[in-house]
Design brief:
The protein is mainly alpha-helical. It is built from nine helices and no strands. Keywords: Cell membrane, Membrane, Transmembrane, Transmembrane helix, Transport.
Length: 261
Amino acid sequence: MEPGTVALVVLAAFAAGWVDAVVGGGGLLQLPALLLVPGITPVQALATNKLGSIFGTTTSALTYYRRARPDLRTAVPMASVALAGSLLGASIAASLPAGVIKPVIVIALVAVAVFTALRPALGQITALRYAGRTHYVAAALIGAAIGTYDGVLGPGTGTFLVIAMVSLLGYDFLQASAKAKIVNVATNLGALIFFIPHGSVVWGLGLLLALGNASGGWLGARMAIARGTGFIRVVFLLVVAALVVVLGRDVWQENLSPLFG
């Protein structure tokens, strides 16, 4: 690779690690940068993206754990189910019509953005919706659903985890982000378990991504913990808006643009 391409990839990985650590959605930056690398295939880009991302999510998860002390009784079982879902999703990604899924995701993201913007108190404090076994079952179902999504499609997995834990389980944004990182480590690992035996990972490039992603993840997690839920909420809305734009563009190009010539 040319030095300029290397610099762009590492910078994108750093920014992606920071965004992922705060609220998820770093793949919006990292994956397009990977696709600019000469000779890389889309599958190699997806697999190499997961390798870089797992270093960033692990770094931010450890930082959150040391400083925010997320409840592992919820996060670890949720992560275990999400890992299985991600592995399943990666194995069926080739046969599942993404063109059908993306419009639904865009509509859901718009609804979530409006809902969050109109409710400024949402995610400010932890007020759990469920107790006991019901809480853990709900967390496991969220982990399974979003883990499978990560294996199949991927963009915004961390953001969807935060959305679900704030709106469905009742966590504040800081605790939701902390748990989301633990679950996101598992979803990245699940996808890699599928991609590595198939030879899809570009290792040298992936290790460059890992360096940038881990640095960004460390900084992002520390900033999120220091600035609290209000800061995370603002970044969350910005990332959701970016997801709507990127996925909306894909929906237009894949489904609507041919209708208008």
